Amino acid sequence: MENYEYILETEHVSKYFGELEVLKDINLKVKKGEVICIIGPSGAGKSTYLRSLNQLEKITSGKIFIKGDLFLHREKGKTVERIDKAKQKQLLLEMGMCFQRFNLFPHKTVLDNVMLAPITVKKEQPKVIREEALELLRQVGLEEKANEYPNRLSGGQQQRVAIARALAMKPEIMLFDEPTSALDPELVGDVLQVMKGLAQSGMTMLCVTHEMGFAKEVADRVIFMADGIIAEEGVPDKIFNNPENERTKSFLKSILNA
User: Fold this and answer.
1) Going by DSSP bridges, is the β-strand pair 61-66/8-17 parallel, antiparallel, or unpaired?
2) Alpha-carbon dihedral angle through residues 131, 101, 58, 166, given to the nearest 10 degrees
């Protein structure tokens, strides 16, 4: 029995780059199995927020909780409290991430890319991982590309390999940072289909996206960020059909009428 109400929680998170405050008092609670899409204009702080969750960016102030544990507490650029190193590493492994760029190792095959982290980080048996990796490639529709090298694949195929690679670590939370923004339009659909399948399987997901159709269809909650704050949040129907915040209204009008 899990003893936490929220799988992920941030309290009063702020982030400065020099004098520029890019995240301002971000409070968010995510339940297990929830799919949250984060939308908003460029420079709103969306990607910085996602990257702060798995420590690619270090927050300036605030608290991050993972599975009920206080993962990190910082104030004015100094760490007040954090869990011990072993627990921190364990909880970080609970988060998989897919970026705009696929970051696959070009000198390794698709299968080797997917197998690498479980073998090197988790010290798992290659024979077992190979079967699991092939099953993940099957899930993303790329089993037949297992022995190809990344440069022989389309961008959409490479992104699906990147998703399989993240899933190979068996994360409980998946973070997607605009995973389709670097793709040609005709390649976007296959990646979104994989993400929809993940959502339907019960994976907890935070997705920074500009794919409004995906957010409408798949999200349990949509977060609209602007100028480093959460300006509005709610179920997709409310955000897309009846937004209250003027920034949300103008953003959606510009996006949907583009």
Assistant:
1) antiparallel
2) -10
| pTM (two decimals) | 0.93
Do residues 10 and 53 lie in contact, with contact meaning Cβ atoms separated by under 8 Å?
yes
In the prediction, which pLDDT does 143 show?
93
CA distance linking residue 27 with residue 111, whole number of Å: 39
d(CA 138, CA 15): 39
Residues 58-93: tens digit of each pLDDT: 999 999 999 999 999 999 999 898 888 888 888 888
Name the DSSP letter for residue 21. Answer: E
E strands, the chain, are 8-17, 20-30, 35-39, 61-66, 69-75, 78-82, 95-98, 173-177, 204-208, 221-226, 229-234
Location of structure tokens 């996206």: 209
Q: Which residue has the higher pLDDT, 57 or 256?
A: 57
